[in-house]
Amino acid sequence: MKYIIILAALLTLACDHKPEARTSPAPKPETQATKEPAAPPMDERCSALQQLAEMDPRTPVPLQPMMAWHQKQNMMEHLEAIQGITKALAEDDWEGVQASSKLIESSPQMAQMCQHMGAGAEGFTELALEFHKRADKIGEAAETKDTKEVLRATTHTLEACTSCHAAYKQDIVDAATWTKLTGSAHQPSMHHVH
Ligand code: HEC
């Protein structure tokens, strides 16, 4: 256990990237060719992550590890909500549609969370809030008991999912870097709401 903690700490240190390096252009192919031979495993892991970062052109959303994990959990729940909506819709279960869409509808807590998650990436929070606003229309459409209307509202919502995914990626940073990039203090209490 102790070994794992030390290893994790070492990995964090080893992969630590300075905020200034974030905007520097990707290295030219010739620098890649002069790669040092027999790099230790940790370097290999970091360079693999570096390779991924370079091939993924999306805007990084800086998140501390706990925030990133929380965001992933939120995302899995979002997909489950959509699953619940389509399942209920297929059964003309209008209350079921509303119960599932409630999970992704706007609320003050949801807005606060989106603000927190998007603090380091311009435009992220706006897309997130727009997504929840679109989801509000799913429950409204279910009131009309009109399958096509619910499908249209769900598609409109899914378009907000996919356009955010096309634009942003997680970027895991340490607390100091996050504070530096966002100019705000971390609010760990937000991640213990469940
Ligand atoms: C405002 C931006 C935004 C919106 C809106 C959004 N997502 Fe995401 N989603 C993200 C980001 C950022 C990631 C992490 C991508 C990465 O791994 O770098 C993610 C990841 C995911 C993942 C992968 C989770 C994992 O375990 O790695 C799923 C599934 C997902 N989103 C589903 C959805 C669904 C379904 C919706 C809409 C109903 C949605 N998301 C809306 C930003 C968004």
TrEMBL record:
One of its GO terms (biological process) is electron transport chain. It comes from the Bacteria. InterPro entries: Cyt_c/b562, Cyt_c_II. GO terms for molecular function: electron transfer activity; heme binding; iron ion binding. This is Cytochrome c. Coiled coil: none annotated. Residues 20-43 are annotated as: Disordered. It comes from Microvenator marinus.
